[in-house]
Predict the 3D structure of the following.
Amino acid sequence: MPLLMLKDLPRYECLLEASREFPDLDPSAAEVFLHLLRSGDEAFRVVESHLAQHDISQGRFGVLMALWGNCQRAGSATEKPLTPAELAERTGVTRATITGLVDTLETAGLVTRTPHPDDRRMMSIGLTKRGAKTLARIMPEHFRRMAWLMEPLREPERKTFVRLLTKVLTRAAGDPSASKRETGVLSARS
């Protein structure tokens, strides 16, 4: 589902006019923000359409990639299973969501649940051979689509883009109300 429910973005002039009514509206910031969301929605659509051909959702793909990536980080083809909590952390979803995703993947034979070797109360989630084969089928086209989407950007632009997005990501991880408090403190001191 798209994050931005606007297909046509407002022109800068419209944002500028709206800023007269809403003084907190920074037209330049709003323009960049809306373009970021719109681009993200379209990038999501490009990936989602490919995954749908394999009858897999973004969430399930994320879980499979986390398990596969864990195998790669271990430095061998031997998989190291993850707990549901670890999967939730790596994929950025709740534990309840992970439970549903793992249920579906287990039913499809793509992952297994086994008792955790150190704690019988916990389960370990592992990638099955079928899960690894499914990823091997999906990933080449997935990576081609990524490359296709980024093709208009030259290498220096890509590096700049990553640097700029990292700044936004770092800021987004912060507390937006903190800047309001800081502004209030500065105003009170003036």
